[in-house]
Design a protein that fits this description.
174 residues, mainly beta
């Protein structure tokens, strides 16, 4: 079979698309494994955002309904790789990486993209809920998400801390 890049690196995130491909986030960037063809395809990372030395690893990977991966890359500046993140939409067809907003000088461990009706993209972080408009996250509410899941009906369930308590919200698919 195909030589796995995971054999020489560190896998940090996984997701599978509707075409049967396995997407793997690693310390070497983003990879797609076409299971039926037994082939690995590398999606090389873009240039590091200004002010950072290099990328660390993919710490979050979510696939949009159209198959495009949305990833959060850990940023490294000097000896540490836990000072910032950069969020990207990656074109599965062209390999083009589009920066979402600006590189953040924080250490958000929670970065989950959720895809709603009418191509709406939501970003849940430890700092709150944003809607992504024209490749920029627009802050909406101080919902400090601790988990997000989508059920088989397309409804998104959000577990979040809000005004001193943990709540569970349901975002309808329609």
């Amino acid at each position: 079979g195909a030589e796995s890049p995971v054999a020489n690196g560190c896998a940090t995130s996984l997701d599978a698309d509707q075409q049967g491909n396995l997407w793997v986030g690693m310390d070497t960037g983003l990879w797609r494994y076409a299971i039926s063809a037994d082939e690995w395809l590398h999606f090389p990372t873009p240039d590091v955002p200004e002010g950072w030395n290099f990328f660390g690893f993919v710490n979050q990977l979510n696939l949009a309904p159209n198959g495009d991966p949305w990833v959060t890359m850990q940023l490294c500046g000097g000896a540490s790789c836990f000072g910032g993140v950069a969020r990207y939409q990656v074109s599965a067809s062209t390999g083009t990486w589009s920066l979402i907003g600006e590189a953040a000088h924080d250490d958000d461990r929670m970065n989950i993209f959720v895809f709603g009706a009418a191509d709406t993209v939501w970003l849940f972080t430890e700092n709150g809920l944003s809607i992504v408009v024209d490749d920029f996250p627009d802050y909406m509410a101080p919902l400090y998400a601790w988990d997000v899941s989508t059920d088989s009906g397309g409804n998104t369930w959000v577990g979040a801390y809000f005004e001193g308590q943990n709540y569970l919200w349901k975002l309808d698919a329609g």
